[in-house]
Structures are given as C-alpha cells and as structure tokens.
Amino acid sequence: MSMVKESIDIDVPVSSVYNQWTQFEEFPRFMEGVEDVRQIDERHCRWKTKVAGVEREFDTEIVDQTPDERIAWRSVTDDVAQKGVVTFQRLDEAHTRVSLALDFEPQGMAETAAAVLGVLDQRVKGDLKRFKGFIEERGVESGGWRGRITPADAGGASSTGTEMPGATRPDGRRYG
Fold it and tell me: Which of 64, 79, 105, 154 could lock onto 72 through a cystine, CB 3.0 to 4.6 A?
C-alpha cells in the first residue's frame, strides 16, 4: 500500500470547514480526477473517477465520523483498495488545519508509477488547496451533516439511525 499525507491551514472556523467537507457531492468542484460522488446513505458513497485515462467506479464506507474532528473511510468494492482519514484541528476561532492521510493500493503499471513518482501526493496537495479556495471564497458551508458514526457501526446500522437530520444536499434537498 502507498501512503499520502498532506495538511493545509484554512482561514475559516472549524465547524464551517467540517460541514463543507461532509458535502461529498461537492467534491468534483475541487478534487482533480473526481467526476462524481453520490451519497447513498449516511455512511456510503459511490465514486466515479478518471485518473490518467482510467475510469473507475467504487463505493466507500465511513467507518468513523466525529463532528469538527475527523472522518475516516474505507473502500468496500474489490477493485479499489483504499482507506483514509481527514482530521480538522481548530487553530483559533477563525482558522482550521485540515490533515488528510490516504492509504491505497495502486492498480496496474500507470498507478504504480504515479505512486512512485509522487503524482498522487501532488494531486492531494492540489485538492486541499482548491478546497481551501472553495471554502474561503464562500466563507460559509453549502450544507453539513453533524451526525456521529463510530467504528462499532461499521458494517451495520449507525447509532444515528437511518435518517440524516439537518443534512442537506448541494441542491438544497434533504437526505433520507
């Protein structure tokens, strides 16, 4: 497996930064190679990516989520092996540090070469810079979900139930 770790400081309060990050369907607006993300339920997303001409569709599961602190996930489809965590650190009332760690198994020669050459590291760094610009320009989040998912919930029902109270999609509709 290959590991990527990057951090960035953002000039927005931690709650707004965290809330925006929970709007997974907005990821294509600032993540290079991510064409589409559809939230299936409070714990699962379906991703469509295109990297170096290779298209992939895969599902992820959130295994740990604590508002304003962290979101950890893993892939749940066989053809993509990855897991990661993004953390949110309050620096002061108006500033937040976002740190991302991604562990993945490159598939094929192109992905293996990209991992060795640090291409993914640069892509993640660029994604975080674009996220910083995205949230700083807005000043406020486009929505947010404040539910809690614990590692014990992985593979089963969440302790937050089947609905996502207070969660809104980018188009203003509610999940659930």
Answer: 64
